[in-house]
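task queued by scheduler; priority normal; single chain, no ligands, no partner chains; default sampling; output format set to structure tokens
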Amino acid sequence: MGKEFFIGQWLNQSLTCYAISHMLVMPLIIWWLANIAVPGVTLSVPMQILMLLSFTAGFIFEITRKFKGPDEDRKEVPTYSSIYGIKTVFIILVILISVMLLIQLWLIMATIGEMPSLSLIPLAMFYILSLYQLTSFLRHPCIRNRKRNEAIVGLYMAVGYLVCAITIFTAVNV
């Protein structure tokens, strides 16, 4: 990624292509890490779901990071909000965060066959908190709320991975 696929300048001006090119590597990293942990691991359904989760979470992180208010937008540095508008990016993030929640639930269900309520509670809480914060940014797009977006959405992603891992490892007694 250091050379940005030898088209760095173009990618920096085409944020959506930039994000896609960077997120394509996320499932491969998950596959690589799984093979380090368990050499010869198969590409099972839960592994494929985890790879999809990493792809989706990567997009959410990338878009949230470049979702800025009018007070931060600079002409020479493109952001998703300057390209698509704050409302459109808000809708995209709400959809992606909702999809991420569904993927997290799917991963747990595909792996252990049930959804423990103790797992559902933190996922739902951080999902709602993320939506609340993004809505706050939509109403008041300022630096303070943008930084909160990054913190809350990042925390939700971390908690989501942690909840999935703890739920699965506890259920399979690893």
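post-processing summary
- Residues 128 and 158 are 15 Å apart (CA to CA).
- The mean pLDDT is 88.
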